[in-house]
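Format notes (please read before filing issues)

Several people have asked whether sequences and structure tokens are stored in separate files. They are not. Every record keeps both together, in the order shown below: the sequence lines, then the token lines. Line labels are part of the format and must not be stripped during preprocessing.
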Amino acid sequence: MATEERKEAVEELGLVFSVRGFLYNQKARISSAARISQLAKQGKRDPGAEIIFRHAHAAEEELRSILEGSIKKHPVWQRWLKDVHGVGPLLAAEIIGEFEGAFRENEGIEHFRTVSQMWAFAGLSVKDGKAVRLKKGEKAPYNGRLKSILLGRLGASLIKRDPKKSGYRRLYEKFKQEESLKIKGTEGGLASKNIHKRALRKMVKVFVSHLFEEWRKAYGLEAGRAYVFEKLGHSDYLPPIRDR
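Then the structure lines:
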């Protein structure tokens, strides 16, 4: 398939399927590269793995280029995400693509009427003040892939930024300090790990509330002000963060 045809396919299918195609090829490239490397140490070759590597790598790079070009045209990227340190085009495409996976035909961000609905879809809801935990064998009522992206790659990327240049990193540090005061001396050796997880989760929820606000505004929809901070122990509205 020619590059122009791939671009048209991305526009027709939406970001979610194109992003997953990219990740599929990335996984194939990494696993085949590992096999090639392992066999090379033994003086052996696997022609099949070499073919998979070449094709997967080429498809991965082509899809990366197309996805990055596509996301840069997205209104919420142009309006806000491009100004957030730690969120590059590919990560933005993954996040937006997974949220768009909830949309019905001919539907957009109006699918999510409240930020609470976005949190629930992403597995960030709480019950009795705690993160929802699944029982063994219970099917997740949320998008597990999106939850992993938000609490994994997004969270890690945001907290790696220089606090002087990243508003979300500073917010993480603020939440971390507050959590430290809350649970100091109550959870023993687990305290430090729990402090990090709770602070990270709060930061990500704030990010999603900002995404909700900016995404809806980008399409001329009422967004209001997500006073989510009352539930997070804050009473003030924090506007979407822009680092640039």
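For reference, the curators noted about this record: The chain has a mean pLDDT of 87. The CA atoms of residues 66 and 209 lie 28 Å apart.
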